[in-house]
Amino acid sequence: MTDPLSVQPPPPPPAAPLPAPQGVIVRPKIFFLAFLFLLFKVHLSVDDGPPVIIPWAETFIPLGPGQHSLRCWVPYLFFPRVGDSAVVVDVLAGGSARAQWRSPWLVFLPGKWTVTSA
Q1: Number of structural domains, the chain?
Q2: Strands 59-62 and 66-76
Q3: pTM of the complete model
Q4: Is the four-CA dihedral 88, 118, 102, 78 of positive or negative sign?
Q5: Contacts with 63 (C-beta within 8 Å, 6 or more apart), sequence order
Q6: Least C-beta-crowded within 10 Å: which of 19, 44, 80, 113?
């Protein structure tokens, strides 16, 4: 005879895997000699929408599948849009993409984008 207090309940069923996040991971970086840019905030506009402020770190932007336009810049002293440049990112269904924006070394130049799939 078994003791009723020692009977263990069956283990719970394994949890279903969570769906992968869908969107773009944006990473702004600076040209190493332009370290003063770190004192200013990065602006990101998605699909020509209103700009949002993102940190100088990886930021996940949830987006639906399809092509999306990303535009990034930094307001710096008397220049309202330093490094203003845009790129088109293709987000696959159920997946995400990585986009890195690098600030220019001179305030009159555009920033440089690098896009990869995540």
Answers
A1: 1
A2: unpaired
A3: 0.78
A4: positive
A5: 22, 23, 24, 46, 91
A6: 19
